UniProtKB/TrEMBL annotation:
Pfam families for the chain: Hydrophobin
Molecular function terms, GO-annotated: structural constituent of cell wall
Protein name from the UniProt record: Hydrophobin
Domain of life: Eukaryota
Gene Ontology CC: one annotated term: fungal-type cell wall
């Protein structure tokens, strides 16, 4: 029971922070990713994106297994094990998101 309450609280906080902190993501879209890695640490990145490794490295971090956050009450929110990110390229069906920066939920 306590675990469920804690998870709900964390998920709600992240959702509110991400929705309220949209000023932290002015150049991309807010997504929840299962992991975030540097471009050189993602296997088969160039075969999925068509980018050369050097090109992808210039884009920053890569979100792996991502879902989009929408307005509260209308869509998904991050769960406790996911990382909220602001990503500039989400055109890979949630498999990968490129150009990602972490969103600081405490600043929202």
């Amino acid at each position: 029971m306590l675990r469920s309450s804690v998870l709900l609280g964390v998920a709600s906080f992240i959702t509110l922070a991400a929705a309220g902190g949209s000023s932290q993501c002015t150049t991309g879209q807010i997504v929840c990713c299962n992991s975030v890695k540097s471009a050189d640490a993602v296997p088969n990145l160039s075969s999925v994106t068509g980018l050369l490794a050097a090109q992808a490295a210039l884009l920053g971090n890569v979100g792996v297994s991502c879902s989009t956050i929408t307005v509260i009450g209308e869509g998904k929110s991050c769960i406790a094990s996911q990382t909220p990110l602001c990503c500039t390229d989400n055109s890979y069906d949630g498999i990968l998101s490129l150009g990602c920066s972490p969103i600081n939920a405490l600043l929202a």
